[in-house]
Amino acid sequence: MSSNGIVLELNQLSCGYGDTTVVSQLDIHLRAGDIGCLLGPSGCGKTTTLRAIAGFEPVTGGHIQLDGREISRPGQQVPPEQRQIGMVFQDYALFPHLTVEDNVGFGINRDPQRRKVVKELLDLVKLGAYGKRYPHELSGGQQQRVALARALAPDPKLLLLDEPFSNLDGELRRRLSAEVREILKSRGISAMLVTHDQNEAFSVSDHVGVLKDGKLQQWDTPYNLYHEPATPFVASFIGQGYFIRGQLLSPDTVQTELGVIRGNRAYQLPAGSAVDVLLRPDDIVGQEPSSLKAVITGKTFLGATTLYRLQLPTGSTVESIFPSHDDHAVGESVGIRIAADHLVVFAARGSVNVHAQLPLEQVLDNENAAESA
Ligand SMILES: Nc1ncnc2c1ncn2[C@@H]1O[C@H](COP(=O)(O)OP(=O)(O)OP(=O)(O)O)[C@@H](O)[C@H]1O
């Protein structure tokens, strides 16, 4: 680890294919022992970034440092096998003709401790009894655990995981991702994951970078990405929610159709500015009696809770999570109240009409237009 506790640094990193820049001026610092994640829509450059870190793609701008040592810059790069980076791929990529033990020990053939290390790692991934089996005799989840043990055997400085759970489904996927986090944390292993699954990103990682069109929108904790999104894109890509139009009354209060809402900070916009206020389903709760009424237009039963889509008197739509025993029918009018600790506000890109509600897609289109202007 370098003296500042950072294991991986991407500084103004750019890379691409031929003349096409795919990833542009990325700044990411991963602390030693942390699990980072690159998250974003298909084609935003997640895998390209991971491959650049691994040394499979040259960089066209900026540089990458691992453990205080520069490993990539334009025209110069340390070969992948000399980077001390382990990789786990979506398709496991195990050697079919080698036993589980030999797969795990493959990268440490000359290590006198090989047997001991292999045993320890197989125990770590809960496959101690499977050493003599071949990959085709294992389930998908077990094969991925072997791949993880194999990647950890040479004691890498950093582990890269490219969509490691996407060949698995449902419950197994959720369980294995939690297990992998526990394994990495128990050994203090630094890792960077690529996924397009937000739940997976949140359950595995300490920090998540949201990419859009090869640019980093925000590198932050899952909590902050959800509650303090830095851009309208992050606000819409992460979690659920609707924007309603508002007007800033003072640095921390906004007039909206749901009344005056006080935020948790001073917003850097002049009083009177038109703003778009993000309301997540957990920012609106049921309350009876309440002068604030909304009509239920949609209902999704989620088990412990129910997600309701609500229409406000002005026609705007918001969503709200109710405890599931607080059961209502579509068409019913319910009392609500705002319970937003973290009020997320962006400068509105349209008219100052407080009651106008922009569809999210339009907010994003406006943002795109502003970016390319
Ligand atoms: N070998 C290649 N040659 C040329 N273009 C490529 C190559 N690999 C990827 N690209 C392009 O680079 C862009 C980013 O691809 P990348 O695989 O990094 O995206 P991603 O975010 O990982 O997407 P996904 O979630 O779909 O895997 C895409 O437009 C893709 O078409």
TrEMBL record:
Keywords: ATP-binding, Cell membrane, Ion transport, Iron, Iron transport, Membrane, Nucleotide-binding, Transport. InterPro entries: AAA+_ATPase, ABC_SmlMolc_Importer, ABC_transporter-like_ATP-bd, ABC_transporter-like_CS, ABC_transpr_FbpC, Mo/tungstate-bd_C_term_dom, P-loop_NTPase, Transp-assoc_OB_typ2. SMART domains: AAA. GO terms for cellular component: ATP-binding cassette (ABC) transporter complex. GO terms for molecular function: ABC-type ferric iron transporter activity; ATP binding; ATP hydrolysis activity. The keyword ATP-binding applies. GO terms for biological process: quaternary ammonium group transport. PROSITE patterns: ABC_TRANSPORTER_1, ABC_TRANSPORTER_2. Residues 8-238 form the ABC transporter domain. It holds the Pfam family ABC_tran. This is Iron(III) transport system ATP-binding protein.
